[in-house]
Structure formats: structure tokens, C-alpha cells
Amino acid sequence: MSHHDWTHGVYAITDAGLLPDDAQLFDGCECALRGGLALLQYRDKSMDDVKRWRQARTLTALCQDYGVPLIINDDVELALRLRREGHANVGLHLGQDDGELSEARQRLGGQAIIGATCHGRLELAEQAAKAGASYLAFGRFFASSTKPDAPPANLALLGKAADFGLPRAAIGGIGHDNIHLARRAGAELLACVHAVFGGEDIEARVRALNRSLSREPPLEATIQGLSTG
Ligand SMILES: Cc1ncc(COP(=O)(O)OP(=O)(O)O)c(N)n1
Ligand SMILES: Cc1ncsc1CCOP(=O)(O)O
Ligand SMILES: [Mg+2]
């Protein structure tokens, strides 16, 4: 677990429409993990607490096998319950309407990974950084079939967000054709639903995304290379 670098790479997010039952969810996530993930997020908007607990618990154990953190979307109570069971690899993602980040930080402790949605707004990123966020998520950058009405954001924002000193996640329509653009603009984490889970051979899809990323080093590495080389 400790050697895993969660701050760079593909950040896969589950979708209950694309992975409609336990078997498809667990199998799809295992394939994605085999392809190489920085982070996996469990995103399920249902009110079915029994299902959510069962699925999140199994995904936690699966992620542990691969040394990858599991991020719970929206639900601090679920994340807390898993951490209290001893799953130190569980984190949380909070949007602007999902509760106070500072309170979640207090409850989950200093070690938990907590991400924050900042849409296209640097002032939200500043607030989230001050409240104890571990990473800042920006977007949507491209058209998204998963969340078409998410507020749009401009890629130039990612460069401006470097000063917060936290990993930047890009989300919204990220896929094979544009992942390099989000990386080049500064995103360390490339968050995808459809590009990972929206087709056959999930492992191959993640491997292809990783190959695109390896051809496009992080912005800071490029700048450092230019200044030293
Ligand atoms: C990595 C990442 N970034 C943004 C979001 C969106 O969070 P939110 O605005 O709360 O919207 P929902 O996902 O809850 O619909 C995310 N989940 N993950
Ligand atoms: C949850 C969320 N928030 C902004 S866009 C989005 C959905 C991302 O899904 P996709 O990668 O399929 O566009
Ligand atoms: Mg949310």
C-alpha cells in the first residue's frame, strides 16, 4: 500500500448504469485495477444503503489487493464505517453540496484521502485546500454523457491551480482522444467513468489510457526538463 503513488494516473469512477449488478461491478473494477489505476471511486447515487455497504466493502477489499485507495463518493458515513472496520485505504470525495470538508477531515482523520469538487472555480479550490482537501477536482472539461449538465470548465484553469500544491484531478468526458490534453494542461489525476467502464475489455481500455499518459509527462516534469536540459 505505502509504495503506491495515488497522486498520478487514471482515476476510475464506477457507474451503476454501466455496472448494474454486483458481479459486473466487481468484475469491471478488477479489470480496471489490473489495467493500472491511481485511484478507484465508488459512485452510486441509489438510496439502497444495504447494497451500498455490501458493494463498497467488497470493493475496499479488492482495492486493498491491488494497493489502490478506494474513494467513496458523497457519503462520509459510509467512508467512516469502512475506516472504523480497519480499512485504511478508504477515502472520500465531496462535491459542493455534499457536506463540510473540514468536518469530514476531522472525522476521517489526517491520513484519509479527501477530494473536493471545484468545478471551474479557483476560489472553491482555495477554500477546499484550506479545509484540508488531499486533491482538487476540476471540470467538466469535455462533453460528458455521464453528467451532461455538470458546469463546464476551461483547461487553462489547471495550470492556475498548480499553486495550491495539491494533486489536480480533471473530470468530464476524459477519454483516449483528449486525456493527453488534460495531462498537458497540468492534471495529475485523470478521472473517467465512460472511458473506463463504457465498453468491452475494461483492462485494455485502462492500459490504453495509461499508454497515452506515459507519452505525455506531467507539466512540471516537462518544465523541469526544459530548465535543466
Ligand atoms: C474526481 C471527481 N471529481 C468530481 C466529482 C463530482 O462530484 P460532485 O460535484 O459532488 O458530483 P457527483 O459525482 O456527486 O454527482 C467526482 N465525483 N469525482
Ligand atoms: C461526476 C462528474 N462530474 C463532472 S463530470 C462527471 C462525470 C464524468 O464521467 P465521464 O468520464 O463519463 O464524462
Ligand atoms: Mg457529490
Automatic annotation (TrEMBL):
The keyword Metal-binding is assigned to this record: yes
Pathway: Cofactor biosynthesis; thiamine diphosphate biosynthesis; thiamine phosphate from 4-amino-2-methyl-5-diphosphomethylpyrimidine and 4-methyl-5-(2-phosphoethyl)-thiazole: step 1/1
Catalysed reaction equations from the record: 4-methyl-5-(2-phosphooxyethyl)-thiazole + 4-amino-2-methyl-5-(diphosphooxymethyl)pyrimidine + H(+) = thiamine phosphate + diphosphate; 2-[(2R,5Z)-2-carboxy-4-methylthiazol-5(2H)-ylidene]ethyl phosphate + 4-amino-2-methyl-5-(diphosphooxymethyl)pyrimidine + 2 H(+) = thiamine phosphate + CO2 + diphosphate; 2-(2-carboxy-4-methylthiazol-5-yl)ethyl phosphate + 4-amino-2-methyl-5-(diphosphooxymethyl)pyrimidine + 2 H(+) = thiamine phosphate + CO2 + diphosphate
A Pfam cross-reference name: TMP-TENI
Cofactor note: Binds 1 Mg(2+) ion per subunit.
The UniProt record lists the keyword Transferase: yes
One Gene Ontology term of the molecular function aspect: thiamine-phosphate diphosphorylase activity
Positions of 4-amino-2-methyl-5-(diphosphooxymethyl)pyrimidine binding: Q41, Y42, R43, D44, K45, N73, T117, K147
A GO BP entry: thiamine diphosphate biosynthetic process
Residue sites binding Mg(2+) per the record: D74, D98
The organism's place on the tree of life at top rank: Bacteria
Listed EC numbers: 2.5.1.3
Keywords for this protein: Magnesium, Metal-binding, Thiamine biosynthesis, Transferase
Binding residues annotated for 2-[(2R,5Z)-2-carboxy-4-methylthiazol-5(2H)-ylidene]ethyl phosphate, in chain numbering: S144, S145, T146, G173
Known cofactor(s): Mg(2+)
Limits of the Thiamine phosphate synthase/TenI domain: 10-196
Assigned GO CC terms: cytoplasm
Family per record: Belongs to the thiamine-phosphate synthase family.
Role, per record: Condenses 4-methyl-5-(beta-hydroxyethyl)thiazole monophosphate (THZ-P) and 2-methyl-4-amino-5-hydroxymethyl pyrimidine pyrophosphate (HMP-PP) to form thiamine monophosphate (TMP).
Protein name: Thiamine-phosphate synthase
Source species of the chain: Litchfieldella anticariensis (strain DSM 16096 / CECT 5854 / CIP 108499 / LMG 22089 / FP35) (Halomonas anticariensis)
The gene coding this protein: thiE
